Task: structure prediction
Amino acid sequence: MRRTNIQLDAQGRLRHFLTIEGFKRQMLVDILDTAESLATVTDQSVKKVPLLRGKTIVNLFFEASTRTRTTFELAAKRLSADVLNLNIASSATKKGESLLDTLHNLQAMHCDMFIVRHEESGAAHFIAKHVAPHVSVVNAGDGRHAHPTQAMLDMFTIRRCKGDFYPLNVAIVGDILHSRVARSQIHALTTLGVNEVRVIAPKTLLPKDVEALGVHVYHDMKAGLKDVDVVIMLRLQNERMSGALLPSEHEYFNLYGLTEEKLAWAKPDAIVMHPGPINRGVEIESSVADGPQSVILQQVTHGIAVRMAVMSMCLGTVAQPTGGEA
Amino acid sequence: MNISILNGRIIDPANDIDRIDALHIRDGNIVALGAAPADFTAEQTIDASGQLIIPGLVDLAARLREPGYEYKATLASEIQAAVSAGITTLACPPDTDPVIDTPAVVKLIRLRSERIGRARVVCIGAATQELAGNLLSEMAALQTAGCVGVSNGYAPFKDHQVQRRMMEYAATFGLTVFLHAEDDNLAAGGCMHEGAISTRLGLPGIPEAAETVAVARDLALIADTGVRAHFCRLSSAKAVQMVGRAQFDGLPVTIDVAAHQLFLTDMDVGEFNSQCHLRPPLRSQRDMQGLRQSLQRGVISAICSDHQPHEADAKLVPFSETETGMSALETLLPLTLRLADEANLSLSSAIAKVTCAPAQILGLEAGTLGIGRAADIAIVDPEQYWELSKDTIQSRGHNTPFLGWELKGRVTHTLVGGRLVYQLHGE
Result:
């Protein structure tokens, strides 16, 4: 028996968006194409389309976030949906209400979509398994597991800058172990069929058997950045020093911080990406973050169009082909 | 009452018996196999044609949740589930609430289970007071009260010195120590086997080293103190190999494994299936094969259920926040029988792993059909297929990944002390 993909409805159309894993290449291309067509909305003087008029979307954030929540909110508003922002970290669960009770209460208010961020891996799957049939769930980051809309906006950015995915070598640098962004990027890149995905980090920041995700492992920036078209830097959290994963920010920056000198090891036209928020002087030097090869702010802009695409596809308000399962 | 069980295939691994014959019971004890004694008249006969007559199962680890966790299960509910699965003796780990660190708690469990009167319940006492890992428990008093050994459950010892003193003190009284080999620092924060699957799911992993490091430490302390020790529920092939080497060198150590570790791997966590959130975690395919081989070679001598029933809510939160453990009494025998089909193990040796071997580890005169022994017996239809479902499960805990599995081999009768305590489709 084949396991059915919880993310698709009976017709193979997108219903939830929880992880990139399990989607066919065509589904990802459809999302990028839909985002491309919606991107023009943002450029108009009236930045709204009525695709989700009458729909209620709940931003259900169990973990603090500014950028992701804001772009989801903007995306929903540009689609004319009603948006409710709930910061659960400071309300219901503190009063002892269980996650399922919170969910059932919101559902009783006839919401159509939950945008979920939670500090536990698998939380978005858990919620998707327990919502009513008419409700969609979009994962806005769960633990170390997945952050699929971030990965899709990165793919959108790469496609706009580079065109075709096939010839590209992409390096992801930094704290892969704790990064849900990296995991979703790896699945997206391998599904879209880039030439090579590399991860560059010390062994303490790499999860066990990471090669099984289809990446090549490097511990050295010079070797790892050779012939690379896209350099993705990950944020380094301060807690990593206290967890004995790294000795100091200083040594980390010396070895893995992206400087102009190290960037020169990649292809001359390589682009530099970062999911934000950036730590200047820790994983990336300011002159690189603000430099000509950086597309970090474009990523933020693209986030709105990509999230508009995912939301309207999940709620079935834009045409989409069927059969997205891998 | 005099009972004769006729025409069944009697398998008694302890006495190397495997033949179709009759078994006769008088005053709660087995009095004869084959021909009945001259003065014997059966008041009841059970026709066991086509069925197995085996010793009642002895389960090395069954959490019955009483006292303290009656919202999960009770002695009454779990004893009913146990006898329906052919289990007649249950060893209860010390992590009840209050913990089993005083004779009073041992007595409470004994009195309550005797009042239910359908299966035998024995206690493993706490090795330290309140399982806090600091102060030794009154082991001599616990032993006098009937504890079959001591254990600190999943709780760590404060340091190696406390663990060493605990072992020395237990050795003074010839008490067996039951060890959960897990280095708490290496396992900290983890919720599944560390490997490709935990990496994919982004779930914090528990490395194999959490078990091997603990086993290495424990083996050194066992050799140092001379205590009789038993490793509970080892999960990695490497750790079992290390203990196997120590056994070869003559160290008095034994190992059990939970039945589910022989059938499930980290792959079964699938998309965050919280029924597979277990401690120790389900390990790799290679570990599962390694455990099966060690079982076949006798390095692992016993299989237990590691029964841990939960209320439904305990599993209804995101994966890592769920409580560990599965409800497992009712899958112990079917899974063990299936091993005989799959793992190059004779039926008799498979049955030994859940009867005489665990009884020997607990130091109990159970798990055999020897003449003069108490008639604790399970009668099993080895060919009957059945499905474990919300309707068939007897335990209060429905938390098992085996729901919906088709299982082979079903208990039709269970006797404890010569009394029929369970009958399928009971008349």
In short: The two ends of chain B are 18 Å apart (CA to CA). DSSP finds twelve helices and 19 strands in chain B.
